[in-house]
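Entry 12.
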Amino acid sequence: MVGDAKQIEMPDFKRVRAASGRFRGLRCVHTHLLGEKLNQDDLTDLALLRLDLMAAIQVDEETGLPKLVHSAHLLPTTAENLENGNQTLPYQFLEPKVPSQLKVDFLSLINSLEDEMARSRQTAQSKQSTRDRVILVSVTTEYKSKAQESLAELEELAVSADILVLDKIIQRRKQIHPKTVLGSGKLNELLIRAMQLGADLIVFDRELTPAQVRSLSEATELKVIDRPQLILDIFAQRAQSREGKLQVELAQLKYLLPRLVKGQNSAFSRLAGGIGGRGPGETKLETDRRRVRNKISNLEKQVKKLRKQRQERRKGRIQRDIPIVSLVGYTNAGKSTLLNTLTNSKVYAEKKMFATLDPTARRLRLPYEQEVIINDTVGFIRDLPETLVAAFRATLEEISDSDLLIHVVDSSNPRVIQQIESVDKILQELELNEIPKMIVLNKTDLLKKVEIEDLQRRISLDNDTECVAISAIRPKTIKPFIKSVGELLAKDLTKFAAFTQ
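Predicted 3D structure (tokens):
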């Protein structure tokens, strides 16, 4: 191979010896015009192509004879590093020597390294055989601190989806690359890191276009998904009721439809044959799109039917003149735990994002014989996918008939103010911001008294709303909260005939 003054163009090695536990079976020996040692491009090619060895021979300008040979080989990542995601260099340099003094039994070295690679991967895979191994990636044009906060939330989502997070990568750019999102240098770094840690999935902390997903998948040879798709996957895992499953499937299909593009799968270019497929024919892609559209139409009809049934049930509750109180808030704020404490229920509650998808209604008797219906609703999140909001509109309409919203907040979360703002934004988009609201600081058992008081003061000033501090797992802290709810509802006694009976 002959390169130019800057680089050598490597040929396509196809999938020769491409198994993950082996090297390529090729050694690259080359010279540099200016007598340099191994540079970053050399090391990148060594890692990405999994070459056995990368060597650069320095040449004497006067005699043309070889001088020192600078070489490096890849290092297998240990099972412990694979498990913990430790940052280690993937290569090791050999001592520079003139060719006549090279005494390394390289074949023996490569065989031992391959054996160690195979053992490490087998150990790691046996420990995490059922879990996807993921690298999280954030590319931003804003401040890095904001990207770090968002990536921390993405990590929580990944853990909730039962995914093993190996590493997190952030790149700040003036503008997002239209094809690969990342810059070429950072993409190479991502490829090396994925190979080194044995990742099988990459999740981007933003919505990707179909073309970007395709380009990244081809470049990395790994499965690539974005933030909305991860949230949809969590919803699919959590949905229990028929209505919840229908809404999740509808959201997934609406997300999938624009991503059914030619080239993503070679099957999409085939023509359908047989009856109904003659003449110009219908491509596999067109058939898939038509089936998805038909399925979406069918699901929308079913969701609409369930929506009417839900409206009828709500009418019955409203006619009985019983106040409706809805628990709203960011996902994992502790809404279901609070409902269980208030009503002695056993609604499913877990320290995971989106543990509740199906709304639950319970009766609650307040002091002075006041009775209300209290709803537990699906949690909100920043940048909730539009397809999910649309699909869950029937569920979210449960909130619209509420007489009081209890905005449950995780006071121990470092992003508590941003989470309150995200929930307020979604409530405004759903035109629910006119309903009376109370903010409840939950999980105060994890904070000091001074921190709770400061947070209460700050939130009350910013939101001009009553703010009560509780801990849903400590029933003693609930009494002042229940009293406040009763007082707020009692302000409009004429609306509820049954409220004071």
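Annotation: Residues 133-234 form a domain with the Rossmann fold fold (CATH 3.40.50.11060). The first helix runs from residue 40 to 49.
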